[in-house]
User: What shape does this take?
Amino acid sequence: MEKSRYFIKQYAKDHKWLSELERILNHIDQQSNQCGDTLIECTKSFLEAVFKNIIIKLKPEMDEKTINCCDLGRLSKLAKGVMCEHSFIENVMPMSDIVQYFSTLNQWIRFLGEMRNNIGEISHGKILPKPYSIDIGLAKIISEITDRFAYILLLMLLEIDLSYTLPYKYEDYPGFNDYLDGQYELPNHLIYSRALFEQDYDAYSEGLDNFLDAQAIEIT
Assistant: This one.
Protein backbone atom coordinates (compact mmCIF):
# COMPACT_ATOMS: atom_id res chain seq x y z
CA MET A 1 0.00 0.00 0.00
CA GLU A 2 2.88 2.35 -0.75
CA LYS A 3 0.95 4.84 -2.89
CA SER A 4 -1.85 5.33 -0.38
CA ARG A 5 0.58 5.55 2.53
CA TYR A 6 2.62 8.21 0.74
CA PHE A 7 -0.56 10.16 0.01
CA ILE A 8 -1.74 9.96 3.62
CA LYS A 9 1.61 11.16 4.96
CA GLN A 10 1.41 14.15 2.65
CA TYR A 11 -2.06 15.29 3.68
CA ALA A 12 -2.86 13.81 7.11
CA LYS A 13 -1.89 17.03 8.89
CA ASP A 14 -4.64 18.96 7.09
CA HIS A 15 -7.15 16.11 6.90
CA LYS A 16 -7.53 14.31 10.22
CA TRP A 17 -9.80 11.60 8.78
CA LEU A 18 -6.79 10.22 6.92
CA SER A 19 -5.35 9.07 10.26
CA GLU A 20 -7.95 6.29 10.47
CA LEU A 21 -6.91 5.07 7.04
CA GLU A 22 -3.31 5.05 8.22
CA ARG A 23 -4.31 2.81 11.13
CA ILE A 24 -5.73 0.26 8.69
CA LEU A 25 -2.56 0.47 6.60
CA ASN A 26 -0.49 -0.29 9.68
CA HIS A 27 -2.57 -3.41 10.22
CA ILE A 28 -2.04 -4.40 6.60
CA ASP A 29 1.71 -4.05 7.08
CA GLN A 30 1.52 -6.41 10.04
CA GLN A 31 -0.15 -9.03 7.85
CA SER A 32 2.03 -8.53 4.78
CA ASN A 33 4.30 -11.46 5.65
CA GLN A 34 1.90 -13.50 7.76
CA CYS A 35 -1.32 -14.76 6.17
CA GLY A 36 -2.56 -14.21 2.63
CA ASP A 37 -6.21 -14.69 3.60
CA THR A 38 -6.06 -12.07 6.34
CA LEU A 39 -4.15 -9.66 4.10
CA ILE A 40 -6.99 -9.83 1.57
CA GLU A 41 -9.51 -9.08 4.33
CA CYS A 42 -7.48 -6.09 5.53
CA THR A 43 -7.14 -4.83 1.96
CA LYS A 44 -10.89 -5.05 1.46
CA SER A 45 -11.42 -3.18 4.75
CA PHE A 46 -9.14 -0.39 3.58
CA LEU A 47 -11.06 0.05 0.33
CA GLU A 48 -14.32 0.08 2.31
CA ALA A 49 -12.94 2.79 4.59
CA VAL A 50 -11.95 4.94 1.61
CA PHE A 51 -15.43 4.62 0.11
CA LYS A 52 -17.12 5.43 3.42
CA ASN A 53 -15.03 8.55 3.90
CA ILE A 54 -15.89 9.73 0.39
CA ILE A 55 -19.61 9.28 1.01
CA ILE A 56 -19.54 10.88 4.46
CA LYS A 57 -17.54 13.86 3.21
CA LEU A 58 -19.59 14.49 0.08
CA LYS A 59 -23.02 13.47 1.38
CA PRO A 60 -22.95 14.36 5.09
CA GLU A 61 -26.73 14.17 5.38
CA MET A 62 -26.64 10.41 4.73
CA ASP A 63 -27.00 8.34 7.88
CA GLU A 64 -23.72 6.67 8.84
CA LYS A 65 -25.57 3.55 10.01
CA THR A 66 -26.96 3.16 6.50
CA ILE A 67 -23.50 3.61 5.02
CA ASN A 68 -22.01 1.03 7.38
CA CYS A 69 -24.64 -1.52 6.32
CA CYS A 70 -23.64 -1.30 2.64
CA ASP A 71 -21.47 -3.96 1.05
CA LEU A 72 -18.39 -3.09 -0.97
CA GLY A 73 -20.21 -3.00 -4.30
CA ARG A 74 -22.91 -0.69 -2.98
CA LEU A 75 -20.32 1.58 -1.38
CA SER A 76 -18.53 1.84 -4.72
CA LYS A 77 -21.72 2.90 -6.50
CA LEU A 78 -22.55 5.49 -3.85
CA ALA A 79 -19.01 6.89 -3.92
CA LYS A 80 -19.06 7.13 -7.70
CA GLY A 81 -22.41 8.92 -7.61
CA VAL A 82 -21.37 11.61 -5.14
CA MET A 83 -17.94 12.14 -6.71
CA CYS A 84 -19.20 12.53 -10.26
CA GLU A 85 -21.36 15.44 -9.12
CA HIS A 86 -18.17 17.48 -8.82
CA SER A 87 -16.28 18.63 -11.89
CA PHE A 88 -13.16 19.14 -9.75
CA ILE A 89 -12.33 15.45 -10.13
CA GLU A 90 -11.59 16.12 -13.80
CA ASN A 91 -8.39 17.77 -12.59
CA VAL A 92 -7.18 14.21 -12.04
CA MET A 93 -8.31 12.81 -15.39
CA PRO A 94 -11.02 13.42 -18.03
CA MET A 95 -14.56 12.34 -17.19
CA SER A 96 -14.50 9.64 -19.87
CA ASP A 97 -11.48 8.10 -18.14
CA ILE A 98 -13.16 8.46 -14.74
CA VAL A 99 -16.16 6.50 -16.01
CA GLN A 100 -13.83 3.80 -17.32
CA TYR A 101 -11.92 3.83 -14.04
CA PHE A 102 -15.06 3.15 -11.99
CA SER A 103 -16.10 0.42 -14.43
CA THR A 104 -12.74 -1.28 -13.99
CA LEU A 105 -12.89 -0.77 -10.23
CA ASN A 106 -16.29 -2.49 -10.09
CA GLN A 107 -14.85 -5.47 -11.95
CA TRP A 108 -12.00 -5.59 -9.46
CA ILE A 109 -14.46 -5.48 -6.55
CA ARG A 110 -16.35 -8.43 -8.02
CA PHE A 111 -13.06 -10.30 -8.31
CA LEU A 112 -12.27 -9.57 -4.65
CA GLY A 113 -15.72 -10.82 -3.68
CA GLU A 114 -15.25 -14.08 -5.55
CA MET A 115 -11.83 -14.57 -4.01
CA ARG A 116 -13.17 -13.94 -0.52
CA ASN A 117 -15.90 -16.51 -1.14
CA ASN A 118 -13.21 -19.01 -2.11
CA ILE A 119 -11.35 -18.30 1.10
CA GLY A 120 -14.37 -19.53 2.98
CA GLU A 121 -14.96 -19.09 6.68
CA ILE A 122 -12.35 -16.40 7.27
CA SER A 123 -14.51 -13.90 5.42
CA HIS A 124 -17.15 -14.48 8.09
CA GLY A 125 -14.84 -13.97 11.03
CA LYS A 126 -13.67 -17.55 11.43
CA ILE A 127 -10.21 -18.93 10.79
CA LEU A 128 -11.10 -22.60 10.23
CA PRO A 129 -12.22 -24.59 8.39
CA LYS A 130 -11.55 -23.12 4.96
CA PRO A 131 -11.30 -25.00 1.67
CA TYR A 132 -8.78 -22.67 0.10
CA SER A 133 -5.94 -20.43 1.28
CA ILE A 134 -4.41 -17.57 -0.68
CA ASP A 135 -0.67 -17.60 -1.19
CA ILE A 136 0.95 -14.64 0.57
CA GLY A 137 2.76 -13.60 -2.62
CA LEU A 138 -0.51 -13.48 -4.57
CA ALA A 139 -2.21 -11.63 -1.72
CA LYS A 140 0.51 -8.96 -1.80
CA ILE A 141 -0.04 -8.43 -5.53
CA ILE A 142 -3.80 -8.10 -5.00
CA SER A 143 -3.19 -5.66 -2.15
CA GLU A 144 -0.89 -3.50 -4.27
CA ILE A 145 -3.36 -3.39 -7.17
CA THR A 146 -6.09 -2.34 -4.75
CA ASP A 147 -3.69 0.30 -3.43
CA ARG A 148 -3.56 1.91 -6.88
CA PHE A 149 -7.34 2.05 -7.09
CA ALA A 150 -7.57 3.57 -3.60
CA TYR A 151 -4.87 6.12 -4.38
CA ILE A 152 -6.85 7.46 -7.34
CA LEU A 153 -9.98 7.70 -5.20
CA LEU A 154 -8.10 9.73 -2.60
CA LEU A 155 -6.62 11.97 -5.28
CA MET A 156 -10.06 12.76 -6.66
CA LEU A 157 -11.57 13.36 -3.23
CA LEU A 158 -8.97 15.94 -2.29
CA GLU A 159 -9.54 17.75 -5.58
CA ILE A 160 -13.08 18.52 -4.41
CA ASP A 161 -13.71 21.64 -2.35
CA LEU A 162 -15.22 20.22 0.84
CA SER A 163 -15.81 23.56 2.53
CA TYR A 164 -19.46 23.67 1.47
CA THR A 165 -20.19 20.48 3.43
CA LEU A 166 -19.11 22.04 6.72
CA PRO A 167 -22.14 23.13 8.77
CA TYR A 168 -22.46 26.76 9.78
CA LYS A 169 -22.04 27.54 13.45
CA TYR A 170 -24.55 29.97 14.90
CA GLU A 171 -21.96 31.83 16.97
CA ASP A 172 -19.76 32.53 13.94
CA TYR A 173 -22.22 34.91 12.25
CA PRO A 174 -23.38 37.57 14.73
CA GLY A 175 -23.94 40.10 11.94
CA PHE A 176 -26.41 37.84 10.15
CA ASN A 177 -28.09 36.89 13.42
CA ASP A 178 -28.56 40.56 14.32
CA TYR A 179 -29.95 41.19 10.84
CA LEU A 180 -32.56 38.47 11.29
CA ASP A 181 -33.46 39.53 14.81
CA GLY A 182 -33.95 43.11 13.62
CA GLN A 183 -36.46 41.94 11.03
CA TYR A 184 -38.41 39.51 13.16
CA GLU A 185 -39.34 39.94 16.81
CA LEU A 186 -40.64 37.04 18.86
CA PRO A 187 -42.54 37.16 22.16
CA ASN A 188 -41.28 35.92 25.52
CA HIS A 189 -37.70 37.02 24.83
CA LEU A 190 -37.26 34.37 22.15
CA ILE A 191 -34.52 35.04 19.60
CA TYR A 192 -35.63 34.57 16.02
CA SER A 193 -32.22 33.75 14.57
CA ARG A 194 -31.56 31.10 17.21
CA ALA A 195 -35.00 29.58 16.73
CA LEU A 196 -34.55 29.46 12.96
CA PHE A 197 -31.10 27.91 13.29
CA GLU A 198 -32.33 25.17 15.63
CA GLN A 199 -35.69 24.44 14.00
CA ASP A 200 -35.07 25.02 10.28
CA TYR A 201 -31.35 24.86 9.61
CA ASP A 202 -31.83 24.64 5.83
CA ALA A 203 -33.69 27.96 5.79
CA TYR A 204 -31.07 29.51 8.06
CA SER A 205 -28.15 28.35 5.92
CA GLU A 206 -29.85 29.46 2.70
CA GLY A 207 -30.51 32.90 4.17
CA LEU A 208 -26.92 33.10 5.40
CA ASP A 209 -25.61 32.19 1.95
CA ASN A 210 -27.65 35.02 0.41
CA PHE A 211 -26.52 37.41 3.13
CA LEU A 212 -22.85 36.60 2.59
CA ASP A 213 -23.24 36.86 -1.19
CA ALA A 214 -24.80 40.31 -0.82
CA GLN A 215 -21.93 41.41 1.40
CA ALA A 216 -19.41 40.18 -1.14
CA ILE A 217 -21.13 42.16 -3.91
CA GLU A 218 -21.07 45.32 -1.78
CA ILE A 219 -17.35 44.91 -1.13
CA THR A 220 -16.53 44.48 -4.81
User: Anything to note?
Assistant: The mean pLDDT is 85. The longest helix spans residues 95-119. Residues 170-219 form one domain.
